[in-house]
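Can't paste images in this forum, so I'm doing it all in text. The chain is below; anyone willing to post the predicted structure tokens underneath?
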Amino acid sequence: MSAHALALEMMTARASRQPTLIPPSARDATFDLDAAYAVEAELVRLRAAIDRKTVGRKVGFANKAMWRVLKLDSLVWAHMYDDTVQFASGSLSLAAMCSPKIEPEIVFKLKAPIGAGPLEAAAVLESVEWLALGFEIIDCAFPDWKFQPVDFVASFGLHAGLVVGEPLQVEADRIPHLVEQLPRFTVKLLKNGDSVAEGSGRNSLRSPALCLGELGAAILRRSPEEPLAAGELISSGTLTESQPIAAGETWTAVVEGLDLPALTLTTT
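Text version of the structure:
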């Protein structure tokens, strides 16, 4: 099946709000990351045709322990769009989603491109304008949430929405402090006031800053014509296990050890 046909199928599956799509990897054993990113690029083109612009990228599988099992040599990514990203307004509608889950993440806004090669956290943060706590909302068109990394890439990276909290400006004199904080801070995720998950910055490739650097390098290796650029928003991988969400719930993420306020979201 062509990248165009698969992209149309992914868009139709999302619009149907039913997890009925057979993963591409289950249909074709030769469907690889090159094919998956071709579908992802076609999704970008199709969405641009209806005036939807990309505003950044999100990562997946930001856990090196999983790479050998999944036969990956890096994390994977997909684009985010101007109609899927919002700054915290207090509420988010789930009406267009079929089986959404929530993930607390660190979100970065770039002020400069990310260079190639292995980068120390401090060098990565020199390209960052601000960082914030965010809620990544993921949704899956595949039954029982069963898929491979190639299916993730070809299906919008499961991206359904991103809610961005209050930004913290990354000024030069703050970078050494952030380098120390980002691997060590902890986060608690609460549903209707009850703690349901805990995590830390180490869950995002040992540090969200290192995850951002790995993303920049991985993109340059695979798609040098489309490097991470100034102005992009980057959602850097979940800090806890994903949690199912439904309308009528209140979700709060609280961090300790990082100078970011709590983020609260009500679902409708």
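The mean pLDDT is 93. The chain is about 30% helix and 30% strand.
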